[in-house]
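Internal tracking record. Fields below are filled automatically when a chain is submitted to the structure queue. Please do not edit lines marked as system-generated. If the sequence contains nonstandard residues, flag them in the REMARKS field before resubmitting.
Queue: standard
Priority: normal
Entity type: single polypeptide chain
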Amino acid sequence: MDGDPAVESQLDGFSLILPLPYRVAFILVLGVWAWGVNLHYLHLLKIDVASLIKYPSRSISSSLPHHQRTYALATTVTIPFLFSILFFWTLTRGQPSAVLAWDFIPQSYLFLLFLLFLIPYKRLSPNGRFRFLTTLKRISIGGIAEAQDGKFGDILLADVLTSYAKVLGDLFVSLCMFLSSGKSSTDKPDRGCGGKYIVPIIISIPSIIRLRQCLIEYMRVRKNPTQHSGWGGQHLANALKYSSAFPVVILSALQRGYDPNKIGLSQTGIFRLWLFFVFLNSFYSFYWDVAKDWDLTLFSSLLSSTFPSVFPPSVTTTTFHSNQVPPNQAHPWGLRPHTHFHTPQIYYTAIGLDLLLRCTWSLKLSPHLDHWNDLEGTIFLLEMAEVVRRWVWIFFRVETEWVRVRSGAVGVDEMLLAPMGR
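SYSTEM-GENERATED OUTPUT FOLLOWS
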């Protein structure tokens, strides 16, 4: 098949170097390293992540810190990845026919990666892997623990899964192509493998999980209301945020398999609806990240600055360069009184990055984008960018929870659905 024009036309230069199975594996491995860096830096800030997620205490005082054990696990999964991909490059040498023929090599690594999370090997953070798997099992059906049993950890992991939605879709595509007769998992991705609606359904699963968790929380509040829980509007608003991802995926799937005889809208009309929900999902999610997940006052400060008579400022703000918290609870504009990161600029940079990458992520949720020519490299970069965005988000989400716990304030799960101008 070497030199076959049909083969040449299917594989772009990027896929010859980094086929789909390796792209999936790379992002999964990157996620382990990213979590280690999260734990490490938060540890340096004296933020006890283990206590927030209700990780079981360890009796041995000489035990390695959690971030070091995570780094050890990341190193363990990285070494065979490097060996596998270097061996693959040596065998294929960029030849399309060889890339297609040796697809079992990257698939073997994905299988090994799966095993590394299952084998009971003591040097590979067995408690951490067991906790991860039990949490994943619980949230995979939309379950969520009670606050005293690690609810915050369930929320973190479920939110991370929403960032890996497209990666999970690509993992399915890779396995489907590998198991399909006459196909190769290192060929140009066939995101219609298994049926044109299977991949959109898989992409939607993480949002469905978070949606169900929000509804469970709402029912808990209705059943056992407390002084701070209100009527549960916060959880319904959060559920609406996750629901806003579904129209993006559904309309994208309709565009991909557009049939004017079956759909009562023109292709232009579907595209305009899709674009509307892309913006809705992006900006709703951005607002929630900043105002609810990070407890920053950006939006209330904007309203107070623009309409001071309607939304009077409730907290005094200091100048842009202030990083101190005076007794009157003044704080840098758009932030909050208690912060752990060193300068306000870190928060402003995170806000800007979150806005930018929220918009690109909503676009990437769309399965029909793979019909654009030579976009596999771009899709991969967008998946990488979302992992980076979630990595940054975790720093501030955990810091926010730590501030709430230390100050004795209720967490976001117990807050009222407060107006933007509060």
